[in-house]
Amino acid sequence: MIRLGSIDTARFLAIGLVFYGHLVEQVMYLGSEPAALQYKWVYSFHMALFFLLSGMVASERRLAMPLLSFIGRMARTRLVPYLVFGFVPMVVALAGVPGWFPTVDLTATAGWVEGGISTLMGLPAFNIPLWFLASLIVLELVHQGLARFWTSTSRLLLAIVFFYSVGYLFNRHVDVLALELLFWMAHVVPLGYAFYLTGVLVRRSGLLEREWPRLGVVAATLACIGVVTLTYDLNQGPFRLLEAVVMMFGTVGHPLLFPLTALVGSLMVILLARLLPAWAWLQHLGAITLIVYCLHGFFYHFVNPPLAAWMHANLAVDSGWVLAIATTAGTLASLAIAAPVAVLIDRYLPEMVGRGRTGQPPAEDNEPPAAGPAQTP
Q: For 201-330, where are the E strands, in sequence order?
């Protein structure tokens, strides 16, 4: 399978959306209405994009691995970074660095224990963005068992509709948060698998390898921006906790408007990546997005809350344009810090993310790794 540099670029753009969404989220909590709208815009598609990209670059060869070999690979490339980066922020907090940990009360010893147990159960209390990696672990185990059935386009289409319907109906009628049924984010898997299989379908179609007129790609990108902007707020729920699509909660709102905006938004990012120059450094950062994503937890818990408070106190964040410029600047600054650290980890401590000492994936992982926050939200 040919590695496509534009998909690596799309992966880095996707992680940029995560940085942006989580920073604007903190401004939203301080009462900014434009922040709430921008949060909803980003969240209308960005996690569906991660699942879709993961399916696009899923290795067909990996499906032929013996089960024990596959489980070993999963433990190395998925579970190890989940545990390492799931607990390092806890150590930072224990050292006295003030942070925001909304799912646990760290003023008492019981909160630390609860956070540790929660992380081991798949809800990473000390690095909440890693929820996607927890869900991806379960999803890839499911795909390893079922992929042999997806031998034709018609079967893939049926599977996409089936898993989306199951995932939507389950999460619509079962509040896993209230019932405390969270276990390795399994409730997100059917929804995520529908987008993952959509990525598989797109890759098999050969559309990504084709050359398209640049002017046509520009027009399609602008059209996608327009469609997302016109449709994201039409989705009025029902939601839980927040009035927006939050796949982590399994709440996606309208059964048709959500996939419409999610698919168009995903296409928008993929097309934008095609338009950007084929910079090797950008594609490399996309290839090591796992590390960037894991590092994002430090910004989510320790940096974003005070930064958002400063923005709210000193900038006119009730203006959508001012907010967008400030949040973009904060996002770029955060990425400028995280990216070189990710490169250093990839080069000198690759074992933290299941990579070989050379900084390259192990032999069986030479095909494009899964998108998003795992090799590879």
A: none
